[in-house]
Specification:
CATH architecture of the largest domain: 3-Layer(aba) Sandwich
Strand content: 25-35%
Keywords: Hydrolase
Oligomer: single chain
Pfam families: Peptidase_S15, PepX_C
Structural class: alpha+beta
Number of domains: 4
Protein name: CocE/NonD family hydrolase
Shape: globular
Largest sheet: 10 strands, antiparallel
GO molecular function: hydrolase activity
Helix content: 10-25%
Domain Xaa-Pro dipeptidyl-peptidase C-terminal: 435-672
Length: 680
């Protein structure tokens, strides 16, 4: 008989016994049962590890070939690369199932999934997994006990009741609380939040207004500050609460934390913000004024009270996306107007309505200790950039930032298309840091988390983590000028121009990952760059590595024959074999060049200055590579193509435009970025 123990976030949840092709288990002290498809499906809700499949493959000797080389491939196609003496990286998939080796055999498995890590391991070998860090930090693997979840209703100031699942730990209390507010169904999060309950926290999982069982009308973002404030007050008034509340969550679940923090509520004493969404005009419904195409599908899937991605499974999206006005697209799919999309498309410049949904506009009230987690390829990365900016003046012991080489789904895989990351790319200790953050600020535990590195960030290419006092770290700013001959170099070139024709009916495609629903995927653009409506500027071959850190700023001097346009640029790593891999990208609508609240149309043919900012990154281009900047006026599949008219997206009239970029002389277009090599 062989025994494996299952741990999540440092807690021992279950024990599995393997004998004669059968598997039995006990879970949180329950009586022993036979593992089958039904109960295995329940275990999947605790993480991204299929326990039954993994153990059966181990029983069948599926990992026996691991000792033959530094790489091996299993019979079912899983690829592994040796990371170190005791660890193997699972190459390729999201939710990599890494292997733990000891005594010349595979003794365990470890899986990271954005904000938690699962470990399935034979007793006695725990020290080779992330469990060693939990032990070093002083945590017991023995879980506490919990009461059965119950439903409670939190009253809002307008009389609307919001439904919440409340889970209390055993004991008399009162307890500190960890809360997540979500539009995706609170029941989805029960399993993953048990780790807090079993360590002595009350947990509140709430459906936001108009979603799930909650009352009211669903209008994204607009009510979250007041509803978050009211919910915090409701929690603090409960007999089981000690008045101290922390919030956690990612994406929209990150947004609602910052919205609640912008209320200034004193009961909110810690947040763990993961891949948070930002403002409606800078990140979610618009990207600096350019309507964000992904929001259409999201609005359709969230139209009812329960998230339904099946509504977006269609084969006519290319035709649908040509429908104008934009808010008609969900109406065609659903058979009725989609309230949120209709409202946000009608407010096509930054006004009082959009301000209500913009927590960043009230950042002066945000004082709560914040742990900020995001990644270079997070398609909501603008939100985390805003979070970093909002907390710039925080004391060093009230803020911590972790920025990895991750997608929006984050901290889960080593391979992103043409980008192949190193063994340190994933952080199996991420949930330990989350736990320490709440323990320190909600329980007063002196565990050193607030004295740790203020910023931890991973450099792609170099494949290692660095620490800094700020992000981007202080350092030399490098300026590279765009040349009319396609050059990209330090000295400003002679004056010149380069032009292309933008056709809104034939937009330049942005290469996204449809399978992973990721919009900042680091794809290879060498074929796209052959289009006549893409202009490239490239350095000479690098003789030494070049580091790009933080946001890249494009100072663009350009003109258009139309009264409006978009400017989209990419920064790319050109490899010796010709791949052109996106590092970062930035987009803006030209009429909002001076102010997001005022449309200022172009004077056709007049050279105008634009500032376009990219997403953030830390990337090292190796010697022999080249740095490239692509500029175009569309990003098909990402933002709706700018029609070039004053009617804008309310009309289906498109205007072809001649776009002219000025280089050198009085109108020297250039990019700039921090380029110092870090000390740590």
């Amino acid at each position: 008989m062989t025994i494996f123990k299952f741990y999540q976030s440092g807690l021992h949840f279950g024990t599995f016994k393997l004998a004669d092709q059968s598997i039995t288990y006990s879970w949180l002290g329950s009586r022993e049962k036979t593992l089958n498809d039904d109960n295995n499906a329940t275990f999947k809700t605790y993480g991204e590890l299929d326990i039954q499949e993994t153990l059966k493959r181990w029983q069948d000797g599926g990992y026996a070939s691991f000792s033959q080389a530094d790489h091996f491939k299993t019979a079912w196609g899983a690829e592994y690369q040796r990371a170190d003496e005791h660890h193997w990286m699972n190459r390729g998939p999201k939710y990599a199932v890494d292997l733990i080796e000891a005594d010349d055999r595979i003794v365990g498995f470890q899986v990271c999934a954005r904000n938690l890590t699962s470990v399935l391991i034979q007793p006695g070998y725990e020290r080779y997994s992330v469990l060693a860090k939990w032990q070093e930090a002083g945590y017991s693997t023995t879980p506490g006990r919990a009461h059965q979840p119950f439903t409670a209703w939190a009253p809002m100031r307008d009389g609307v009741g919001l439904a919440a699942t409340v889970i209390l730990p055993a004991g008399s209390g009162p307890f500190p609380t960890v809360m997540e507010r979500t539009p995706y169904g609170r029941e989805v999060y029960v399993a993953s939040y048990m780790r807090y309950v079993l360590r002595g926290y009350a947990v509140v999982l709430q459906d936001v207004r108009g979603r799930g069982d909650s009352e009211g009308e669903w209008l994204p973002m607009i009510h979250e500050q007041d509803d978050g404030d009211d919910t915090l007050n409701w929690i603090a008034a409960q007999p089981w609460s000690n008045g101290k509340v922390g919030m956690s969550g990612g994406s929209y679940g990150g947004y609602v934390q910052w919205a609640a923090a912008a209320s200034g509520n004193p009961h909110l004493q810690a947040i763990v913000s993961m891949v948070t969404a930002g403002g409606p005009f800078t990140d979610t419904y618009y990207r600096r004024g350019a309507p964000f195409m992904a929001q259409v599908a999201w609005s359709i899937a969230t139209d009812g009270r329960h998230f339904n991605s099946a509504l977006t499974d269609r084969d006519d999206w290319d035709q649908l996306m040509k429908v104008r006005p934009i808010e008609k697209i969900p109406e065609i799919v659903l058979g009725h107007p989609q309230y949120g999309m209709t409202q946000f498309m009608r407010h096509n410049h930054y006004d009082r309505f959009l301000n209500r949904g913009d927590w960043f506009a009230r950042r002066d009230k945000i004082k709560v200790p914040a742990l900020i987690q995001s990644g270079w390829y997070d398609d909501d990365g603008i939100g985390s950039t805003e979070a970093i900016a909002a907390t710039t003046d925080y004391p060093s012991d009230k803020r911590r930032i972790i920025l990895g080489p991750w997608l929006h789904g984050g901290n889960a895989q080593y391979d992103l298309g043409p980008v192949h990351l190193g063994a340190e790319a994933l952080r199996p200790d991420i949930d330990l840091i989350h736990q320490q953050w709440f323990d320190h600020f909600l329980k007063g535990v002196e565990n050193g988390v607030a004295a740790g590195p203020l910023v931890e960030y991973y450099t792609v290419g170099e494949e290692r983590w660095h620490t800094a006092a700020s992000f981007p770290p202080a350092g030399l700013v490098k300026v590279l000028h765009l040349g009319a001959d396609g050059s990209l170099a330090v000295p400003a070139p002679e004056a010149g121009t380069v032009s292309y024709v933008h056709d809104p009916s034939n937009p330049v495609p942005k290469l996204i990952s449809v399978t992973q629903n990721e919009f900042e995927f680091p794809a290879d653009y060498q074929k796209v760059e052959k289009r006549p409506d893409v202009v490239s500027f490239t350095t000479k071959e690098l003789t030494t590595p070049l580091r790009v850190v933080g946001q890249v700023k494009l100072d663009l001097w350009a003109s258009s024959s139309a009264v409006d346009c978009d400017w989209d640029f990419r920064v790319l790593d050109v490899t010796p074999d010709g791949q052109s891999i996106q590092m970062v990208e930035g987009t803006m609508n030209a009429k909002f060049r001076d102010s997001l609240s005022e449309s200022k149309y172009l004077k056709p043919g007049k050279v105008t200055h634009f500032t376009v900012l990219s997403q953030k990154t830390s990337y090292e281009l190796l010697a022999g590579h080249r740095l490239r900047v692509d500029i175009q006026s569309s990003a098909g599949g990402f933002v709706f193509p700018n029609p070039g008219t004053e009617e804008g997206f309310a009309s289906d009239r498109f205007v072809k435009a001649t776009q002219t970029i000025s280089c050198g002389g009085q109108h020297a277009s250039a990019i700039s970025f921090v380029s110092d090599r870090p000390k740590n």
